[in-house]
Amino acid sequence: MISVENVSKTFTLHNQGGTVIPVMEGGSLSVAPGECVALVGASGSGKSTLMRMIYGNYLAASGRIMVGDVDVAQAEPREILALRRERLGYVSQFLRVVPRVATLDVVAEPLLALGVARDAARERASALLARLNIPERLWALSPTTFSGGEQQRVNIARGFAHDYPALLLDEPTASLDAANREQVMALIEEAKARGAAIVGIFHDVEARDRVCDRVVDVTGFTPVRVV
Amino acid sequence: MKDMAMTEAGLSPLLRVEGLAKRYGARIGCTEVSFDLWPGEVMGIVGESGSGKTTLLNCLAGQLAPDAGRVLFDTRGRGMVDTLTMSESERRMLGRTDWAFVHQHAQDGLRMNVSAGGNVGERLMAVGAQHYGDIRDKAIDWLDRVEIAEDRVDDRPSAFSGGMRQRLQIARNLVTGPRLVFMDEPTGGLDVSVQARLLDLLRGLVREMGLSAIIVTHDLAVVRLLADRLMVMKSGHVVETGLTDQVLDDPQHAYTQLLVSSVLQV
User: Locate the ABC transporter domain: which residues (chain A) (predicted)?
Assistant: First the structure.
């Protein structure tokens, strides 16, 4: 479902003397449906960079990034938008929303974008919010004023609202208490069981060992830096 | 519904712009602008003032005559037609039906001495609506959709706040069910709390109506929330295009990097 082949990435800082920073070389991995692969490596080794390239958030300098039949490294914006809407989900570490929009609608939005009827989308959103222990009295409020942990759970609910066949998870269990962590682990296991291909970053080793089938060490893709 | 727009999205672009250029004497307004806009897509045009983004928007919307290029629109009747060479009456009709233009200053897009209901109804009458009761009902429905209470329908926009005027302008523009909306700094000059409300409203309308839109703004936070794609302009040239989050998070051009790094963090 997800196949990354020989991907490289450099950042060119035009306003800082044109400094070129190579951050990845020969990045490769593949994830089958129903499989969860963990990216590991020290901080700064490129885990998030690789994940962002798979999502199309960072441009790859070279290589192929296939998600289904779309090469994210080459695709037009509208192809990537359709991919994100229908097939590729991403739970980032931070929630970014329009201020004022109710939590329930924030979570239902990916379904509305797919054309799901409002009532059905809200029903699904309610079920997820309840499962992740967001008190119902908060659902009508904007999540912008919520605590960090609550925002993260809203973000997870939103990421799992639609059954994406491919999912990217950036530290989904960070800053969660035991009960909520358990719910997130269960959501991941259910996604795998229905055949989702998952790439995740987990600093929580216990969580990683439980849900991930394999580990890819991105340190192997770090270019040799001339210091 | 957006899903309908989406299933049609594979067929052909709604708008195709080829080699558009406008000069003011020796100075470049905008030049070599080409892009396709697909049904349901929202494209943001960003750049500092003087970068040519408003000139470009005005050329696209038929408010300013470009010196070169083509602006092809997928018309309901005749397919792709160059709007720059169509007859004046045909272009005027397009401006009342499939196209809409939301101005930065609501007073430029409203009739200030006509009631709110009249402002919305007028556009309906321009496309042939005649039954007073129907027009009034539809106007009230649209005022409700932009969160203007029914008891304000007979008030003039001069009695409205800036945010209300902008919402009224949006209702007036969208009541005829356009397919393409041009917006020039739609949230400019509004309080941030009013901006958020307007952004939420615009996002909902774009999704529900399957609208395509081109939004000119200097506010990167606005395009991050509203636009699917971005076009970055500098000195009349398009220097970078791409997915909105990709352009903002991984800008490639020196000017875009400068723009993004200059935003104040709150």
Answer: 2-226
Spacing of C-alpha A224 from chain mean position? 28
Q: What pLDDT, in 10s, does the model give residues A123-135?
A: 999 999 999 999 9
- Residue B150, classed as helix, strand or coil, is helix
CA-CA distance, A9 to A21, in Å (whole number)? 9
Name which of B41, B224, B252 is nearest A59 (Cβ-Cβ). Answer: B252
DSSP letter, residue B265: P
Q: Do B41 and A14 touch (CB under 8 A)?
A: no
Specify the DSSP class assigned to residue B68.
E
**A-proximal residues of B, 105-144, CB under 8 Å:** none
Residue type, B166: Q
- Chain A closest-CA separation from residue B88 CA (Å): 33
Mark which residues 24-83 of B lie under 8 Å from A by CB.
Answer: 38, 41
Q: Does domain A1-87+166-227 have CATH number 3.40.50.300?
A: yes
The single residue listed with the structure tokens 């997130």 is: A184
Dihedral of CA B202/B205/B207/B213: which sign? negative
Chain B partners within 8 Å of A59 (Cβ): 242, 246, 250, 252
B207 at the A interface (CB within 8 A)? Answer: yes
| Cβ atoms of residues A21 and A224 within 8 Å | no
ipTM of the complex: 0.92
pLDDT tens digits, one per residue of A60-92: 999 999 999 999 999 999 999 999 999 999 999
Query: Looking at the complex, does the CB of residue B191 fall below 8 Å from at least one CB of chain A?
Result: no
Burial of B96 (0-12, 13-18, 19+ CB in 10 A): middle
**pTM of the model as a whole:** 0.90
